[in-house]
Amino acid sequence: MSSSAPGSQDWAVRVEGVSKAYRLYNSPGDRLRQALFGRFKTYYKPFWALRDTSFTVNRGEAVGILGPNGAGKSTLLQVIAGTLTPTEGRAEVRGRVAALLELGSGFNPEFTGRDNAILNGVILGLTQKEMISRLPRIERMAEIGRFFDQPIKTYSSGMRARLGFAVAACVDPDILIIDEILAVGDIAFKQRCISRLKSLISKGATVLFVSHSVGMVRSLCDRAVVLDHGGQTFFGEAGEGVDRYINSVRDRKAEKTHTKKQRHVKTIPLEGDIPGTLRYGSGQVQLASIELLDERGEPATILPFDQDLTVRVGITCHERVENPCVGFSVRDGRGVDLIGTNATDEGRGLAPMEAGQSASVSFTLRNTLHEGHYSLSVSVTRAGRRGSRRDLPLDHVDAACPFSVLGEPSRPVRHKLFVPVRVEVSQVEVPAPHASPTSAQ
Amino acid sequence: MTEVAIRTNDAAPAFRLFSPLALLADLAPHRRLIWLFVRREFAQRYRGATLGSLWAVLQPLLILGVYTLVFSVVLQIEFDSGITGNPQGDFVLFFFCGWIAFTLFAECAGQAPISIVRRQNLVTKVVFPLQILPVVMVGSALLRAVIGYCILLVAVVIITGRIPITALYLPVVLVPLVIFTLGAAWLLAALGVFWRDVRQVIPAVIRLLLFLTPVFYPLALVLRRTPEKYHWVLYLNPLTTVIESTRACVLVGRHPDFAALGILTLVSLVVLQLGYALFSAWRKDFSDVV
Questions:
Q1: Strand (E) or helix (H) holding A14
Q2: What's the number of domains chain A is made of?
Q3: Distance from CA of residue A305 to its chain's centroid?
Q4: How much is the ipTM here?
């Protein structure tokens, strides 16, 4: 407990250069040939589901694993859980691992929920006695009523998920690995899962969590791993991970559009240091600066509610464009665009621009946002042409100027945005015995 | 200090695969789980049947009845070994001695190729000591064999009115059979994961083995009728020694052939270790193909 390097006691999961290749054989005969003559010749094609992944998860930390389908998330979890052998590298885990890799994993459909709960616990390393003492808790948590004593084959997928989660949560794992199973539960179940996960984490459990619900990752996880095509593209703070993931998905969409249009559109390399996570465009007109200003015209990152804010965008022209259009949107932490417009829509379209010319556009609006974290998406496009919305923008950047909005206690915003609402009340007065004439005041 | 588990692709060192100590160390911590699984397997077999686990006794009795009917009553096959003074009664007992041992082996060999594949959940979804699955299979078959042997002993008492003291050697006779069966089960289980063809071949092999094993006939009969130079083929079959020894100690009242059993035990231990080595070396790739 004492001798190792400082901090080294705190890790729960350590992944070092883990890669996983599946062997794809053309026929079972090739598999036989590989087994017999494998040292002389290779009879399979390797498929790399995961490449060179490295990260360390500390005890009591929750880590989300994000990535599009086929990115290698489940492979990674399976390697950590110990059900898949990595082809290269090593994964180390410290403590009891409970893995929920799929609905009702390890469940024997012929036996009752109660039997399966005991069996699952024993597989996870508890004694039968310990498991029996936990049964009432599992039964309460699963909330599947009398189905608890029915064979699992009669369960719905939601019931299996409930039972699976209840068992995994009640064996007090040191490390809990969850692969998207919460997706099938209803909202109440999900919320119970989250609160249960939070209490496990607060007791020092480590959670690894794959979910396509970025909201869940954001609310639950401290850090995140982003995978793409088997490669690890990010490991760090969860919020940033979610942004990266959302952007990579959008990036790919944009790339698709890009390659489609590329044949017709000449592109100019984008110049200048515009802060933000993703920038793309054909570059005839480019963003030169993006500023977020408060009511006094000072650059700001914290903006109070119900004051004016200004987005000032500077652009430079590299090649003549007939009808440049500058637009922006305010994006919330979950990647939802809440407010936004462009100069053309507001009746302030720009004049044609020649190479070398520059311009500045300011948008000023009342800050009606709910308390929280936001960022800007800013773009220059060609306006007015039919279908122009689908065009590749001239220059577009996401997640620029991150900022926070402070709430105003005297004027609470219940939902994402405040919009002035006119309220009229007509209340029929109950005739009171001593109706006071002063009430008219 | 909590335990650290390491997942790598490093091959297990050869000395581990071929060490009987490693084999034991791989099973001993899971003895509770093995016992739990054996009981469940046993329970599952009779689940849903009205008579429940009574079938564990009824089924061998029924099979014994069928064979008695066909061979003793219809075909009137006789073994005149002078145990019961009733040649047809002799046959029933001789047959049953062989049938129990053969069934134990045949059931395990038949199920082994799919024993891993059919528990897909345990391979891909949870961390499970897969090496115990063949052990569970053999254990559950042994449980049923033990019931069979109990029926046999009762039948011996009923038919002959006595039971030889040498019947106490029966557990010793079964040791090499169980070891050999488990070795074969590990081997076939590992092969069956990668080549689904194995399970197609096995039934034919078992059928052939049935005729090469003195189940329906006493060994002496074959020895009398075949040229001596082919006798080694019969002794190559480990079941032959086990079954003949069972007959010797339970029916005839002779000591089993301890020399033959000793050699067979050694051979079985080699098979066991080989089966374990192959299974352990390949198991890290099971989840890639199951």
A1: strand A11-24
A2: 2
A3: 27
A4: 0.75
